[in-house]
Amino acid sequence: MTTKSKSLPDHALCLRTYADLREYTQAFSQGHLNLLILCGPPGVGKSRGLRAAVGNNVCWIDGNASAFGIYQEVYLRRNQPIVLDDVDGLYRDRNGIRLLKTLCQTERVKSLSWHTDAPTLEKRGIPRQFTTTSRMAFIANQWQSLNPDVAALEDRGHVLIFEPTALEVHRQAATWFWDQEIFDFLGRWLHLLKQPSFRTYVHGWELKTAGLDWHTGILGRCLAGAALVVARLKANPCYASEEERARAFVHSGAGCRATYFNHSKKLQSRETIPDIPLVTTRPPTEAHEEMLHATFRVRASVSCVDD
User: Fold this and answer.
1) Are 254 and 240 in contact (CB under 8 A)?
2) Res 290: pLDDT
């Protein structure tokens, strides 16, 4: 079991499967949850999962968004669900926390106001006070209970920690990833991934299409030093036996024969990963590829940043 972060409230719920995550994202999409706070490591599909549930009828704000910019965007998209994605600094800002406390009220109708920057608001036709029925969702890699104001936000919503296992991430990747060779290779070394991430699959494919050593690229994300050399040798089909690999290891200068076999034993998986056929075997089209990379990029919502 994963230990909950000390910075999260005691009532935070830990989710380990994508099926559990879908239940909560769909509940938010259907209007049952007024406030959802979704935390978890990067690259496991938190944003992807919520986007799939809410569709297009949502005010999605991410990147370098300010409190003033969000106030304007919420007015323009009032009464729609609002998702704040990776706006980690907002709840550390005095104006940001004041705005969020209003938006996250348990009442159905929230009354928002902004009493500075009147010329800018007037120029854009945005009133200094308005009401909205928008529901809120936060997505963050980390969430910290910095002060009583942040604790008040947590108390008003459902706090989820999404921490899927490497195998769970692998199974989910099978529903959208397209390169069986890379997928199977990752499955073989899944036990070494300290931080499972969809990005590892995509990065492997980028290296492969560029004609680069994608095996080492993937292994390098979880190993270093002599252990990486051993893993590279074990992944190389040119060697017919462990003895040949051990000799190659000694010849490389990475260590002695005993060192090779010590690392080889440590690299063995204690779990059998099942063979999983991919749903699709074709790379994404240009349009889908752009959408895929947009999912993983650190985005900045231009409309929500002050001029």
Assistant:
1) no
2) 41
Instruction: Residue 235: name the closest of 198, 267, 203 by CA.
Output: 267
Q: Where in the chain is the domain with CATH 3.40.50.300?
A: 13-164
Paired tokens of 134 = 């928008």
**Which of 23, 54, 21, 56 has its CA nearest to residue 40?**
21
| Cβ contact 205:181 at 8 Å | no
* Residue 170 vs residue 116, higher pLDDT: 170
Tokens of 269: 């998986």
d(CA 299, CA 301): 7
Proportion of the chain in helix, strand, coil states, percent, rounded to 5: 45, 10, 45
The answer regarding whether domain 13-164 maps to CATH 3.40.190.10 reads no
Judged by DSSP in three states, 5 sits in coil
Do residues 301 and 47 touch, judged by C-beta distance below 8 A? no
Find the range with the poorest average confidence among 3-17, 213-227, 253-267.
3-17
Nearest-angstrom CA–CA distance, 110 and 103: 6
- Is the pLDDT confidence value at 145 over 80? no
Pairing mode, strands 110-113 and 129-132: antiparallel
pLDDT band at 8 (very low <50, low <70, confident <90, very high): low
User: CA 165 → CA 37, 112, 162, 178, 232, distances in Å?
Assistant: 20, 40, 10, 21, 24
Give whole-number Cα distances, 48 to 60, 74, 111, in Å: 12, 22, 30
